[in-house]
């Protein structure tokens, strides 16, 4: 099968299209013919050698953390899926390929309102946003969320999920993306290049602060997130695009009685990934079926043009997801 293989680390040119053996199918696994995969910031780190796939090293290092496709075969003990079913999933790696073996309980049915080729834009950002804001962040109907990088893949999904559950949203983004984020339903969009999101939060919430913060930036955002949170609120750190090292004034955190937590999906054990996937199916997929939440796709590339896709994602020009058609 064709796959993108890493034999060395570095710039996008190290992404090599090669023929490798098809994956072996375990008894509870499902073989999926991949229709599309999607890029994530973690892929850029892995390409540079900074974020390897968790678990035992495979014979070939194939990036790719999410996919959509059709079931091609099922393992001897697999009972949940049939050949031809349209499915999607988050995985630890291996999705930059024509086929992948996935544990049957990690797979999710493609929502009927979404084309299978577009569904690759849903699993990683959808589960990440739902798990961070709702499961860990405790966001509920009537609450307020602060979503940073509102035009990113996670950000576009987080805004929609918050609105779908009846919450209100303050989102940050850059100048050229304000209208796009507002169109997703954000109650207030703050251009971080010209305005202070702390002031925006205080004005929007009447000085109370937000219930949950989803932050992929880190760095000097931390103290401003603490200033933006309500008493008893939660800050969920999903990424550190702005830097992982910063100073914190604990004197500000203590009276807020706030929670500061970090989270990743990729390194979680199978049972935790299954639980996160199934809760997403139960709580958010109905909103996708109803059209209240949709995949946001910026552009698509062919598998052979994966290097160009990585270069494009690194420009930070995209709004939503960059997909790879397999």
Detailed description of the structure:
The protein has about 325 residues and is α/β, with parallel strands linked by helices. The chain has helices at about 40-45, 125-135, 155-165, 180-185, 195-205, 220-230, 250-255, 270-285, 285-290, 305-315, and strands spanning about 1-5, 15-20, 30-40, 65-75, 85-90, 100-105, 110, 145, 170-175, 190, 210-215, 230-235, 260, 295-300, 320-325. The chain is built from 10 helices and 15 strands. Strands 3, 4, 5, 6, 7, 14 and 15 form a 7-stranded mixed β-sheet that branches. A 6-stranded parallel β-sheet has the order 10-9-8-11-12-13, with helices on both faces. It starts with a strand and ends with a strand. The mean pLDDT is about 95.
Topology of helices and strands:
Layout (H helix, E strand, L loop, with lengths): L1 E5 L8 E5 L9 E10 L2 H7 L18 E9 L11 E5 L8 E5 L4 E2 L13 H14 L7 E4 L5 H12 L3 E6 L4 H6 L4 E4 L5 H8 L5 E6 L5 H8 E9 L12 H7 L2 E4 L7 H14 L1 H5 L7 E6 L3 H9 L6 E5 L1
Parallel strand pairs: 8-9, 8-11, 9-10, 11-12, 12-13, 14-15
Antiparallel strand pairs: 1-2, 3-4, 3-6, 3-15, 4-5, 5-7
């Amino acid at each position: 099968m064709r796959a993108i293989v890493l034999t060395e680390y570095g710039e996008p040119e190290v992404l090599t299209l090669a023929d490798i053996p098809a994956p072996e199918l375990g008894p509870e696994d499902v073989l999926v013919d991949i229709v599309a995969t999607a890029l994530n910031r973690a892929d850029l780190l892995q390409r540079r050698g900074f974020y390897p796939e968790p678990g035992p090293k495979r014979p070939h290092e194939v990036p790719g953390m999410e996919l959509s496709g059709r079931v091609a075969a099922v393992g001897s003990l697999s009972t949940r899926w049939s050949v031809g079913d349209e499915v999607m999933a988050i995985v630890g790696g291996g999705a930059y390929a024509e086929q992948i073996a996935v544990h049957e309980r990690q797979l999710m049915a493609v929502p009927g309102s979404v084309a299978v080729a577009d569904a690759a834009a849903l699993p990683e950002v959808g589960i990440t946003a739902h798990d961070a804001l709702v499961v860990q962040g405790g966001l509920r109907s009537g609450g307020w969320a602060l979503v940073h990088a509102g035009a990113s893949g996670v950000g576009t999904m987080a805004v929609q999920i918050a609105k779908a559950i009846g919450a209100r949203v303050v989102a940050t983004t850059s100048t050229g993306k304000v209208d796009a984020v507002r169109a997703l339903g954000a109650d207030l969009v703050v251009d971080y290049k010209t305005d202070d999101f702390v002031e925006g939060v205080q004005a929007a919430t009447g000085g109370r602060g937000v219930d949950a913060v989803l932050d992929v930036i880190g760095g000097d955002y931390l103290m401003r997130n603490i200033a933006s949170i309500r008493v008893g609120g939660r800050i969920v750190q999903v990424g550190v695009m702005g830097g992982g090292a910063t100073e914190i004034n604990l004197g500000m955190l203590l009276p807020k009685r706030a929670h500061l937590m970090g989270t990743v999906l990729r390194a979680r054990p199978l049972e935790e990934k299954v639980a996160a996937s199934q809760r997403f199916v139960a709580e958010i997929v109905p909103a996708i079926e109803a059209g209240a939440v949709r995949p946001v796709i910026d552009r698509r590339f062919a598998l052979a043009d994966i290097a160009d896709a990585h270069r494009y994602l690194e420009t930070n020009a995209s709004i939503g997801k960059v997909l790879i058609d397999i």
